[in-house]
C-alpha cells in the first residue's frame, strides 16, 4: 500500500525503516504557533550535525519524513567529502512559508533545536532566510547563516552557487579538457536563491544560458539582470529545457530531477547543479554513465553553502570561506578521476571517498554528545 493511502499523521513503516541508520529523529509540535517540524540527525561521527531548515508545504507527514531523512544523510556525506569536521543533519518545517511563517513559530522551532544541546546546528534552506535564522537564534545558541547585521555569514546561496560553478569547471575539464565554459550552452532549472547567482558566474565566464523556473518572477528577474548581455533566455518548462541542445544541465530546484525520462532525452554531456538528491532512483546514475554523461554528484558540488555557514562557527570571513569553497574544484575532479579509474559512477566514487573519511576519522570521535 502506498504512503498516500495511510493516515497522514502516521509515516509508513518503510520510511521509518529507511531512517534506521540515523542517530536521532525528533518530531516537533507547537500547536500555539502552528509549528510542525522534523529534525533528523544522521551522523555526528565527524562532529556536530549541521544542515539547513527547509520550510515546505509537504502533502503528507510521510513525504516530510522521507525528505528529511534523505537530506540529512546527504549532509553527512557532503561534510565528509568537503573535509569538514561536521556531521549531517537537516530539518523540515511542514507548511506554506508564505502564510505560516511568523516570529513566534520560528522562536518555537529554535527552542526545539536548543533542546538538542549542540548536537544539531541549523541554517537556511529552501523556504528559509537569514532573517528567519535571526528569529531562531533568539531562543537558540546553535544557529548559523544569520544576517551580517547580527554577526552572521548572510545568504549561504552565494557560495553554494560559487561552489557549483567550481564543480562545473572541473566537470568541463574532465569532459572536454578545458575549464572554460565560454561558448557552452548551460541549462539552469531553478533560478531562485542559488540558480540566480550561478547564472551570473556562467555569463561572466562567457556561457550561453537557458533558464526555467516554476516561479515566473524569478525568471523575469534573471532575464532583466542579463538583458544587456543577451546571453540568457528562458523556456517555459523543465521538460522543454532538458530537450534543448545543451552542453551542461544544472538542476537547481528541488530533488529527484534526474529521472529515467530526463536522461533519455538529455542532450547535455555534463550534469552539474545545486539541487540536493538529484537522482530519482539509484539506477539513474548507471543510465548517465552508460550514455557517457559526466555527472558531478550534487553533494560534492553544492557544498559551498555548508562551507560558508561552517566558517561562521569560527567567526566569519567571506574571503576565507570563498577560498575554501574554491577547493570544490579539486574535490570534484578527484571524484570524477576516481570514478574513471575504478570503473564506477561518480556517485559511487563520491560515496566511497566520503565513507572512507567517516570511517578513518569518525572512529576517533564517536557520537557527538553536544555541549
From TrEMBL:
Domain annotation Glutamate/phenylalanine/leucine/valine/L-tryptophan dehydrogenase C-terminal: ranges: 154-366
Pfam families linked: ELFV_dehydrog, ELFV_dehydrog_N
SUPFAM superfamilies hit by this protein: Aminoacid dehydrogenase-like, N-terminal domain, NAD(P)-binding Rossmann-fold domains
Gene3D superfamilies linked: Leucine Dehydrogenase, chain A, domain 1, NAD(P)-binding Rossmann-like Domain
Keywords carried by this UniProt record: NAD, Oxidoreductase
Family per record: Belongs to the Glu/Leu/Phe/Val dehydrogenases family.
Protein name, as recorded: Glu/Leu/Phe/Val dehydrogenase
Amino acid at each position: 500500500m502506498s504512503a498516500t493511502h495511510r493516515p497522514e499523521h502516521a509515516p509508513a513503516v518503510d520510511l521509518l525503516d529507511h531512517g534506521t541508520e540515523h542517530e536521532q529523529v525528533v518530531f516537533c509540535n507547537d500547536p500555539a504557533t502552528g509549528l510542525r517540524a522534523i529534525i533528523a540527525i544522521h551522523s555526528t561521527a565527524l562532529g556536530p550535525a549541521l544542515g539547513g531548515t527547509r520550510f515546505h508545504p509537504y502533502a503528507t507527514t510521510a513525504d516530510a519524513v522521507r525528505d528529511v531523512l534523505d537530506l540529512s544523510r546527504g549532509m553527512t556525506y557532503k561534510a565528509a567529502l568537503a573535509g569538514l569536521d561536521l556531521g549531517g543533519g537537516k530539518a523540515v518545517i511542514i507548511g506554506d512559508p508564505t502564510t505560516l511563517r511568523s516570529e513566534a513559530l520560528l522562536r518555537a522551532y529554535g527552542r526545539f533545536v536548543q533542546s538538542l544541546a549542540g548536537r544539531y546546528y541549523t541554517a537556511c534552506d529552501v523556504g528559509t532566510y537569514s532573517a528567519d535564522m535571526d528569529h531562531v537564534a533568539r531562543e537558540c545558541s546553535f544557529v548559523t547563516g544569520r544576517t551580517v547585521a547580527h554577526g552572521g555569514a548572510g545568504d549561504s546561496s552565494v557560495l553554494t552557487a560559487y561552489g557549483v560553478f567550481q564543480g562545473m569547471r572541473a566537470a568541463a575539464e574532465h569532459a572536454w579538457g578545458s575549464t572554460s565554459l565560454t561558448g557552452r550552452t548551460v541549462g539552469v532549472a531553478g533560478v531562485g536563491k542559488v540558480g540566480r547567482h550561478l547564472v551570473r558566474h556562467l555569463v561572466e565566464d562567457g556561457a550561453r544560458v537557458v533558464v526555467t523556473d516554476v516561479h515566473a518572477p524569478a525568471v523575469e528577474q534573471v532575464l532583466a539582470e542579463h538583458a544587456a548581455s543577451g546571453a540568457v533566455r528562458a523556456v517555459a518548462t523543465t521538460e522543454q529545457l532538458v530537450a534543448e541542445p545543451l552542453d551542461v544541465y544544472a538542476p537547481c530546484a528541488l530533488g529527484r530531477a534526474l529521472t529515467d525520462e530526463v536522461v533519455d532525452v538529455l542532450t547535455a554531456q555534463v550534469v552539474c547543479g545545486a539541487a540536493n538528491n538529484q537522482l530519482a532512483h539509484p539506477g539513474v546514475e548507471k543510465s548517465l554513465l552508460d550514455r557517457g554523461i559526466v555527472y558531478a554528484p550534487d553533494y560534492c558540488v553544492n557544498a559551498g553553502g555548508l562551507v560558508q555557514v561552517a566558517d561562521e562557527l569560527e567567526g566569519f570571513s567571506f574571503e576565507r570561506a570563498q577560498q575554501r569553497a574554491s577547493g570544490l574544484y579539486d574535490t570534484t575532479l578527484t571524484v570524477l578521476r576516481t570514478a574513471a579509474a575504478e570503473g564506477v559512477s561518480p556517485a559511487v566514487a563520491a560515496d566511497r571517498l566520503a565513507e572512507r573519511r567517516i570511517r578513518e576519522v569518525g572512529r576517533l570521535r564517536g557520537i557527538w554528545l553536544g555541549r
